[in-house]
Amino acid sequence: MQQSLGRKSGLHCSWENVITHEPKSQGLNFQSSVHNIVQKPEDHPAYHIEWGMFWERRYQELLCEGKDPDSYDFKPEWISYWNNRMKELSMFQVCFFKSIILAFLEMDFIVF
């Protein structure tokens, strides 16, 4: 079964090829990568940068509040912050790749 994708003439591919193409074998399986990062958050490419920015911001806030940042336990706040931030980063990544695909296919929108 052939389906036309976008307004580009001659850009056709079978639905089966789209579904069974090789992205999983190339390590591009989004669900798998999200699962791995949830299991080991420090493997996320932005983890250490985000931690540094979070720590610096909270450190300054604690100083302003008159608390001792050197004895403060950042971990509970960091876990909550990182979980929310990771969701934001993942949604940004999905939207980014979706816009690239739509631009490639010269489509204004896509319905899933």
Task: Give the helices and strands, then pairings.
Layout: E1 2-4, E2 12-14, H1 15-20, H2 30-39, H3 47-64, H4 75-105
Antiparallel strand pairs: 1-2
Your description of this structure?
This protein is mainly alpha-helical and 112 residues long. The chain has a domain of 77 residues. The protein has four helices and two strands, in the order ββαααα. It starts with a strand and ends in a 7-residue tail after the last helix.
Principal-axis shape: elongated
Q: What percent of the residues sit in helical stretches (DSSP H or I)?
A: 55-70%
What's the pLDDT, averaged over the residues?
75
| Low-pLDDT segments | 1-20, 22-27
Oligomer: single chain
Which percent range describes the beta-strand content? 5-15%
Secondary structure category: mainly alpha
Number of helices, counting only DSSP H or I runs of 4 residues or more: 4
Order of helices and strands: EEHHHH
Terminus-to-terminus distance? 18 Å
Biggest sheet layout: 2 strands, antiparallel
Lateral strand order in the biggest sheet: 1-2
Q: What's the alpha carbon Rg, rounded to whole Å?
A: 21 Å
Report the count of strand segments.
Answer: 2
What attributes characterize this protein structure?
two-stranded antiparallel sheet; elongated; disordered N terminus; mainly alpha; 112 residues; 5% strand
Condensed summary:
With 112 residues, this protein is mainly α. The chain has helices at 15-20, 30-39, 47-64, 75-105, and strands spanning 2-4, 12-14.
